[in-house]
Amino acid sequence: MTALVIDSVPHGRLTTNDVARLRELFDAEYSAEFGAWDPDQPYGYAPHDHHLIARAGDEIVGHVGWARRTIGVGAAEVMVAGVGGVLISPRARGQRVGARLLIHAAASMTDAGGIEFGYLGCREEVVSFYESCGWRRISAVEHSIDRTGQPTTQPSGPPILTLALGPNPRTWPAGSIDLRGRAW
Q1: Residue ranges for the chain with pLDDT beneath 70
Q2: CATH number of 4-182
Q3: C-alpha gyration radius of the chain
Q4: pTM of the entire structure?
Q5: Which of 172, 54, 43, 30 is nearest to 104 (CA)?
């Protein structure tokens, strides 16, 4: 694979070429199940404010997106960077591209200021990958708006992972989680 470059791109600064290449990456993986990728509401999930894009030459081979949001956790308010759109092209898998993207994503979340935690939900089979990158699994009931726009509650158990950020990271608070919008 050509030398890897990771760019940090605010959503509003994605070029037409970036959007086209990201659409190719996402549609190759998900179009059969979810249809065409839409950068402003990817597969019905919340859009990203920020994109970490791995490039090998002219090809986009990986992506991590995140968006800032204050959520409720028990009685606490928590500023998170909700993470989604974590995808590596088949030709770049097994080369630690995902781990490198997550390192860059954590740095960009920290640099953005005021974000206490990275936050994501995932499939059980990728939990160990996120844990190997420093993310911590938590267990809580999660309230959100589903991909069709309806309120939904996910019982405790499916994977939710957090990444404490900042120079003096705090412990994730106890209680049920209200995402106050769609998941990422």
Answers
A1: 1
A2: 3.40.630.30
A3: 16
A4: 0.94
A5: 54
